[in-house]
Amino acid sequence: MTTTTSPPRATVRDWLGMSVLVLPALLASMDLSVLFMASPWISADLEPTASQHLWIMDIYGFMMAGLLITMGSVGDRIGRRRLLMLGAVAFGTASVVAALASSAEMLIAARALLGFGGATLAPSTLSLIRGMFLDENQRRTAVGIWTGAFTGGIAVGPIVGGFLLEHFHWGSVFLINVPVMILLLVAAPLIISESRDPEPGPFDVLGAVLSLAAVLPIIYGVKKIAESGAAWPSVAALLVGVVFAGAFVLRQRTASHPMIDVRLFARPAFSGSILVNAVVVFATAGMGLLAVTFMQTVLGLAPLTAALWMLPTVGGSFVGVAIASLLARTIRPATLVTGGLLISAGGFAVISLVTPDSPVGLLIAAYTTLTLGVGMTATIVTSLVLTTAPPERAGAASALAETSSEFGGALGIAVLGTIAGTSYRNAMAATPVPGADDTIGAAVAVAQDLPRAVAEPLLRQAFDAFTEGFALAALLGAAVLVLAAIGAGITLRRVTAE
Hints:
The chain has about 500 residues and is mostly helical. The chain has helices at about 10-35, 35-45, 50-80, 80-100, 105-130, 135-165, 170-175, 175-190, 205-230, 230-255, 270-295, 305-325, 335-350, 360-390, 395-430, 440-445, 450-490. The chain is globular, with a radius of gyration of 22 Å.
């Protein structure tokens, strides 16, 4: 008679380590959105152009997306805890530089450095959790907590920003990272065990170069196409990125010690989960910037008030995580993921109905519905990515999951933000006012210096123009999520509940 040995269960020390690992995951995703609330203040203080404004918002996510695969592979080799601590130093230092930025160019550069630091934090946390929790049920719970922190961080960012902006300079939204990084440096060596690939082989330098050469041109091309249409330099950059992406895949298929096992993408559970992960963060992050801007400008809410209104959206994310964790043992992933995506799409559809005269509760109810669906979806797909990959490649698999998240988030901010911004500028071009036809924040600032008889019509025009772009972006987000739901139902249809 054969007996099966159950995997060891996590100890109290493991759960304490889990509580520490949640913090960098929370901050890494918060920094995608923490500037949403500070956006009007940055516009007034640094006076960025519309293009610079979007770069300030999304260069962080794009840098992370370009470096995550490389950093995940590095962590597998030098130790994931060691990489986590190196990342804490880099992230804390870049946060101080960003807080002291005195120009748009300096802030863009600091955000890029933050992306470098974030790229070392994110894959380390998730891959360490993969090694700490060997029991399937405990791992699902741990991944659910991590997912709640990561997806909730996107919603928490504007809330934290709102509280800080009520009392401090906008640079304070970066300085909050510093004490958390110090805590991580102190606690990690005490309660988190080191983890690495026992037989990593030599580091694939060529693969790392090819991954950057693939991701960065694609990012640039997509962003420029979203900003100004399909001009030949943008299309050329996109094609260059695709060529390097093909070379990267070929390298990974032939290298003796590849950074990632591209054969994993032949598994529908893995490839479908990676794609869905990117889509939900694309929609959530892109809409987050627009929603917070709408609340502060069109609805005229103070930062603290807007932050308090955003609290239910965080709750929606955690409720979604709890629902997915509870039902995952008995309901197939395809059903849960498809359902979560359709719930989020419904939230987007309601957001498209919001007008300048709508109560703020309507926007928050719709946005909370959106985050509930995201919480359900992200929990399942993150768990599928981790359990599909072999344990020794946990860092690389985690990096792929994080790459899809960061790329999706930054792309969502760029694409949805550009669509809304273009719609706004086109609407304002009918009766242009110098300095007010580039961004809604600029229009509000200009109106403050005009006589009331001139300011009121200007603000009404600006509010209507921004709301029109806001609704257009929401409809696009809903369409993308519905298509993703159809794709998830197909790719995950054979995956069982366990």
